[in-house]
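User: Is it possible to get a 3D structure for a protein together with its bound compound? The compound here is magnesium ion. I've pasted both below.
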Amino acid sequence: MMITARLGRIVLLIVLPLTLLVSFLLLAHHNGSISRFSSSYSSSSQTSSHSKPKPNLNGTRENAAFVVLVRNSELNGLRETLQNAEDRFNRKYNYPWVFLNDEPFTDQFKEWTAGLVSGETFYGILDQQSWGYPDWVDQEKARLAREDMANRNIIYGGSESYRHMCRFQSGFFFRHPLLAKYDYYWRVEPNVKFYCDVDYDPFQVMRERDLKYGWTLSIKEYAETIPTLWSTVKSFMAEHPEHIVPKGSPESLMDWITDDGGETYNLCHFWSNFEIGSIKWLNSKAYIDYFEALDKSGGFFYERWGDAPVHSIAAALMLKKSEVHWFYDIGYFHNPYSQCPREPAWLAAEKCSCDPQESFDTHWYSCTPQFLKVTGKKPTDFLITER
Ligand SMILES: Nc1nc2c(ncn2[C@@H]2O[C@H](COP(=O)(O)OP(=O)(O)OP(=O)(O)O)[C@@H](O)[C@H]2O)c(=O)[nH]1
Ligand SMILES: [Mg+2]
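Assistant: Yes, that's possible. Here is the predicted structure of the complex:
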């Protein structure tokens, strides 16, 4: 009797808890809550995510995400930027972050980024179609073009990966399965800085004002990188007049990119390292027709077309003035230029750390004065929050 009772107690005190613990561990592992990242791999794409509890947003968050194309080697520069973007804006909103790479992200990259941000994180790899040569491109001709541009010291002229990057940013990031489900994206790069608090939700502004493209800095392109871009665009316009806002229309932005009624390109573009844009617009037939016309010409490889002029020309030709917004009040830095708002009350209220005198918007090489002229606006017209 005594022995049976003792055995019973042993079972209750040791074996039962052990069984419960083992069952819990098995269940937790099955649900993925022990492994920090749940991953699924296909032959061409690595997608994995790190979920966080959904914040209580009172239904105010938009269907939007940050997107960062980045290499594993840029982790530290990216972490500073993530910390800064979270501190200045996203800790209040918890928007998700989508990281994309042409190679698999390392576990360290995933852990050190997921740990820094307030929103969910997603990690994707690119496939051959979006980061590779299309079959109509003559790779030997492309190699000779790189050699020639390197000899002429054209910036990134000798780089093959830079060309894949520009083509990807021009025509593919918004089609990636991790991004395609969102309405809006905010593009971020490693090492950029946000100088002021952002006390409103730019994604909400995009939706409420029916905006398609938002930018902060504008500049002129190196002509040597795009010798035939404008003639290719002109052929596209002739073939697809239905996609173009009519030249004479008061809503046309065309005069921002041409000084002679469309004969030549004046090299003006929005600096695309910062963009807040509409994914639906980039996925529209108009934009895809445009990208495919450019891509078919091979200019991303035979020359060195940047995604900044490619996006900007599309916006200037296919969007209405009222659909393009200057985020004048988002203090921003990408080496070596910055955008800094000027209103003293605003600078203080938003805790800006930039110097308005250094702001690139009034620089002779900026295209922002021409944007203001064409749209008939002044910088303060673009302030979202009155101070
Ligand atoms: N995964 C991956 N990302 C890249 C590669 N090349 C560039 N990127 C990313 O693409 C974005 C643009 O590249 P950058 O090198 O910053 O190009 P840039 O802004 O024209 O030039 P910088 O003045 O040097 O910043 C950045 O977010 C980079 O991290 C690459 O080969 N692989
Ligand atoms: Mg950059």
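The pocket of magnesium ion (ligand 2) is lined by residues 189, 273, 334 (CB under 6 Å). The two ends are 84 Å apart (CA to CA).
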